[in-house]
Design a protein that fits this description.
This protein has 301 residues and is of the alpha/beta class. The protein has one domain: Alpha-Beta Barrel (TIM Barrel), CATH 3.20.20.30. Helices cover 47% and strands 20% of the residues. The strands form two sheets. An eight-stranded parallel barrel has the order 1-2-3-5-8-9-10-12, surrounded by eight helices. It has a two-stranded antiparallel sheet with strand order 6-7. The longest helix has 18 residues. The termini are close together. The model has no long low-confidence stretch (mean pLDDT 96).
């Protein structure tokens, strides 16, 4: 299983500081480093810079919201970033949430599954072939791109519900989950996306599972800290539905928390049920984060 680390927006520093964080991941032997696209540094721009300074790491977005960026613009930016990183970009995209898209941008969130189908109908041909001729109900893409030295990055679609998982399997290269525990991954995510990919004649999809993580001898305290890392997500309807499926109150209850033996067992369970990637969001004190990353690195080797 691939093992990576996610750096939340609220913890970002300067560009030089972020390059140093990714360089440290590389030195520790991690497979990948991931950034969200939120109200901070532009993730694709930063990863292009990181990729020129740090070799060996897959560099992923988790995730770029689709509504604010036309797929033609995102395709050009992703191809540029992939060229800058030597083909190591992993493009995670997602719908974001109704409140954020409508409240922040003033854009309609109507029929999100239709939006994503049409978005991929423009994005994927541009990434693969540099040309597209598509006209849908809400999106049009009719153009050609010229990005010398670029190859198409794999695209991972943030998906939790069946319609989006089927789309991720049939059209994209995998999925990225968020606030999603082992019950949903095993019973819903992996079976649906795997079947959709097989039915479409596509390779087996990657299932990237991102969760708060903390190696600690005090599990109760660790879960409190893990819950603070993703505080509020339990109130977002799409995640509330997933948490209810897990039978838990909030993100703290599905985070990877415990001493070394327990932590390793939880990561192993994710691998056994079909996760191809575990992306840790280290939390807790500075010492606990260092301990968590060091132990994760030891699991890789």
């Amino acid at each position: 299983m691939h093992v990576g680390v996610f750096f939340p927006t609220k913890e970002h520093g300067t560009i030089d500081e972020m390059v140093a964080l990714f360089a440290a991941l590389r030195e520790q032997g991690f497979t990948s480093g991931w950034l969200p696209q939120s109200l901070g540094l532009d993730a694709l721009t930063l990863l292009a810079i990181v990729g020129r300074e740090v070799d060996g790491l897959e560099l992923g977005t988790s995730v770029v919201p689709t509504y604010p960026r036309h797929p033609i613009s995102l395709a050009a930016q992703a191809l540029t970033a992939n060229a800058a990183t030597g083909g190591r970009l992993r493009l995670g995209i997602g719908l974001s949430h109704k409140a954020g898209i409508e409240g922040r941008y003033g854009l309609s969130y109507e029929k999100p599954a239709r939006h994503m189908r049409e978005y991929l109908s423009v994005l994927m041909p541009l990434l693969a072939d540099r040309r597209v001729d598509f006209e849908g109900e809400t999106l049009t893409g009719k153009t050609e791109l010229t990005v010398a030295g670029a190859t198409a990055p794999p695209v991972f679609l943030a998906a939790l519900q069946p319609l989006m998982l089927k789309l991720a399997g049939a059209e994209a290269d995998g999925t990225i989950t968020w606030c999603t525990g082992p019950v949903t991954i095993e019973e819903q995510v992996v079976p649906i996306i795997t079947k959709a990919a097989a039915d479409a004649g596509r390779p087996a999809p990657r299932v990237v599972v991102a969760l708060p993580a903390i190696v600690t001898n005090d599990e109760a305290d660790g879960r409190v800290k893990a819950g603070l890392q993703l505080e509020g997500y339990e109130n977002i309807p799409v995640y509330r539905a997933v948490l209810d499926r897990e039978g838990v109150h909030g993100p703290a209850d599905i985070s990877v928390v415990g001493d070394e033996a327990s932590f390793a067992a939880q990561v192993k369970r994710l691998e056994d049920i079909g996760a191809t990637d575990f992306v840790a969001i280290p939390c807790g004190t500075a010492e606990e984060r260092d301990r968590t990353q060091a132990y994760l690195a030891s699991l890789i080797s």
